[in-house]
Design goal:
Layout lengths: L14 H21 L5 H18 L3 H23 L2
Helix pairs in contact: 1-2, 2-3
Length: about 90
Amino acid sequence: MKLPAISLKLRRPNFDTLSQLVIMTMGISSVFLLGVGNKYGPLIGLAAQPFWFYTTYKHRQWGIFISCFFYTLSYCAGVYHFWFRH
């Protein structure tokens, strides 16, 4: 009895894969840093927002897409609080 051949194709990473990695790493970092009161938290979160906008628009996740605007405003408020207010 001959076993069927299993083919594992490795795909080259595309921009969507890169976006998911950026969202994961920067999102976790941002929330952690904000949780401990670090001033870099909002900057990292703000830097991840273009990737959120791209991903949610591309995959037609309209509720999350609209939420991205409010997250962006929240991160901007954090940047103002930590960097310009003092």
